[in-house]
Amino acid sequence: MFYISSRGSTANHWLAKTLSKHPQIVCFRSTRGFPPFDPTSTSHTELSVDLFFDGLLECSSATFHEKIFGSIHGYHGLIAKTACEKKGGLFSYLIRHPISRIHSAYIYHLIKDIYKPGGIEISTDSAHERVCLIFSKELSPFKDAPILRKKSWPQRLNKYFYKICQVMLDSLFPIQRAKIISKIRIIQKSFVDRVTSPLQKIQFARKNSENVVNSPNASDLVLNEKRLIRNLFIKLCDDFMRADNSLYDGCSQHAGIVMEEIVVSSQYFKNHLWERIAPNVQITDNYLTSVFSESRFNIHRQNPMTPEQVWLSWPDSMKNIFRNYFEKYNLACICDAFGYDRTFL
């Protein structure tokens, strides 16, 4: 049994699929239950980590131990480490140069969560250029930009209610937590759908600066594009670097799997990654050939930017935000440990 922790933007799709290509390996991805449903689903029960790993072991037992079961990118950070290792599993984590990872995740979420819902079709290159210009104040964020209305009071109440429930359940009912949380999510959805009118829900619209200024409720309803993209960048810097710090401090360096290596080096895949998956299972040249013939998912550019190129393209305001969290979570040690260049920072 194995588990690979990842916060995202580290070739999770590709790795889960290529591992599952091996006749003795099954790797689930982005799930916290059985069957391996998407964790955002409200119609299934999220399992505690202990029950999840019991499930992986039962799957192996059901195949008379002819197959090894594992998973990736479901429980973030160190949440799964104790349960995995307690039950004899191998716990590892994926690492990537922090600039490359944050840049990749940032572009993905800009398009998915901000521009696309606003009805604005924008390419990866254009999204990157646009936010850099807005951060550097060379482009007005209002002109032909998506406008996000604030969440209505039922949605805000719903958010805080869920957080309070999580804290209480962690303290009072840790074993039943997953099942109860699943029920709460169903109640939440019903609450928002019934109380919040369609016009009050989060809406995106194209407006120009004059529409925004002249809107009678502009100060109350409108968050401008600059604030949206800035908050997203801050959130990703904090989330990803905090997770990297936690995993590096809580695991051996050997448990770290370098994303840049596994996608290009068959030797690294065979000599390092495989030791963290199934060290007693044979790996053949034919299998490795099939691994590296597999196309990767969610590649944002045909010619990816290097970390240094990304850094040089960022305006000072973005660099300052990145540096703040880079220093806060001591990412210099992680970069040095895994051989990531940081001389240009």
Summarize the structure.
The chain is an alpha/beta fold.
Report on this structure.
It is built from 16 helices and eight strands. The chain is an alpha/beta fold. Among the domains are: 2-99 and 247-337, Rossmann fold (3-Layer(aba) Sandwich), CATH 3.40.50; 154-195. The chain has a five-stranded parallel β-sheet. It has a three-stranded antiparallel β-sheet with strand order 6-5-7. Mean pLDDT is 81; it is low at 142-153 and 194-223.
Defining key terms:
single chain, alpha/beta, Rossmann fold, 5-stranded parallel β-sheet, 3-stranded antiparallel β-sheet, 16 helices, globular
Query: In angstroms, what separates the terminal alpha carbons?
Result: 39 Å
Structural class: alpha/beta
Return the CATH class of the domain at 2-99 and 247-337.
Answer: Alpha Beta
**CATH topology call of the domain at 2-99 and 247-337:** Rossmann fold
Query: In which range does the helix fraction lie?
Result: 40-55%
Shape: globular
Unreliable segments of 5+ consecutive residues: 142-153, 194-223
- Strands of the largest sheet, in order across it? 2-3-1-4-8
Order of helices and strands: EHEHEHEHHEHHEHHEHEHHHHHH
State which percent range the strand residues make up. Answer: 5-15%
Number of strands: 8
The number of helical segments is 16
